[in-house]
Amino acid sequence: NAGVMQNPRHLVRRRGQEARLRCSPMKGHSHVYWYRQLPEEGLKFMVYLQKENIIDESGMPKERFSAEFPKEGPSILRIQQVVRGDSAAYFCASSPGPGLSSYEQYFGPGTRLTVT
Amino acid sequence: AQSVAQPEDQVNVAEGNPLTVKCTYSVSGNPYLFWYVQYPNRGLQFLLKYITGDNLVKGSYGFEAEFNKSQTSFHLKKPSALVSDSALYFCAVRGVGGATNKLIFGTGTLLAVQP
């Protein structure tokens, strides 16, 4: 059973460009979460999605950031007009549907975004 | 607001000795608590969780954690440390309120096990 997959693993963008980060959850998981890890810091929650629904986006910056989890295909975290402060590791996690097991989140290897 | 504190940036221990990585939490209601480990340039790996039941929770790789409600703590422990346990350890609590299932992480503790 493949784990959570993220691509690309490394992404370099110049200021002002767009960054698209993709996440495929574990097989059978219908919940996806995005977290950001800035250098020397812990992980900060960004957004929680189920298929075609945003459940909690309380951690998303108000501008330039968006996320989706379509009916088919991976979840996408999109950052428009990137700035140097967006440089970080972005981790995706997934969990099963309702029930106690939904509290266990399984993380992907992350995408390391560098903005030059 | 919910929060997690890991008071030690780094813990040093000799191989074969017991280890403890500390975590305290602040949350309204019953806490759901987690420990994750992160190796360099890797994602987080789930170690164990406390949802309900026994205060001593056993997890992966010989780790265990003790939930103490009166001290609002959830310390990670292992009876005998291995060099391969050297990594960054994160404590987390599930957010409460609404439909969220988000995790709120501590700042992490770097565990260094010397041979």
Cα distance, first to last residue of chain A? Answer: 37 Å
| Poorly predicted runs of chain A | none
- Measured by DSSP, the beta-strand proportion of chain B falls in over 45%
Poorly predicted runs of 5 or more residues of chain B:
none
- Assembly state (oligomeric): heterodimer
> Structural class of the helices, strands and pairings of chain B?
mainly beta
Note the beta-strand portion of chain A: over 45%
Rough outline of chain A:
globular
Mean of the pLDDT scores of chain A? 92
- Through-space gap between termini of chain B: 41 Å
Number of helices of chain A: 0
Helical residues, percent of chain A: under 10%
Number of strands of chain A: 11
Order of helices and strands of chain B: EEEEEEEEEEEE
Instruction: Name the helix and strand elements of chain A from N-terminus to C-terminus, one letter apiece.
Output: EEEEEEEEEEE
Provide structural commentary.
The complex is a heterodimer of chains A (116) and B (115). Chain A has no helices and 11 strands. With 116 residues, chain A is an all-beta fold. In chain A, strand 7 and strand 8 form a beta hairpin. Chain A is globular, with a radius of gyration of 14 Å. By secondary structure, chain B is an all-beta fold. In chain B, the strands form 3 sheets. In chain B, strands 2, 5, 6, 10, 11 and 12 form a 6-stranded mixed beta sheet that branches. The chains are: A mainly beta (116), B mainly beta (115).
Keywords:
heterodimer; A: 116 residues; mainly beta; 7-stranded mixed sheet; 4-stranded antiparallel sheet; 11 strands; 0% helix; globular; B: 115 residues; 6-stranded mixed sheet; 12 strands; 50% strand
List the helices and strands and how they pair.
The complex is a heterodimer of chains A (116) and B (115).
Chain A: E1 5-7, E2 10-13, E3 19-24, E4 31-37, E5 43-50, E6 53-56, E7 65-68, E8 75-79, E9 88-95, E10 106-107, E11 111-115
Parallel strand pairs in A: 2-11
Antiparallel strand pairs in A: 1-3, 3-8, 4-5, 4-9, 5-6, 7-8, 9-10, 9-11
Chain B: E1 3-5, E2 10-14, E3 19-21, E4 24-26, E5 33-38, E6 44-50, E7 56-58, E8 64-68, E9 73-78, E10 87-94, E11 103-105, E12 109-114
Parallel strand pairs in B: 2-12
Antiparallel strand pairs in B: 1-4, 3-9, 5-6, 5-10, 7-8, 8-9, 10-11, 10-12
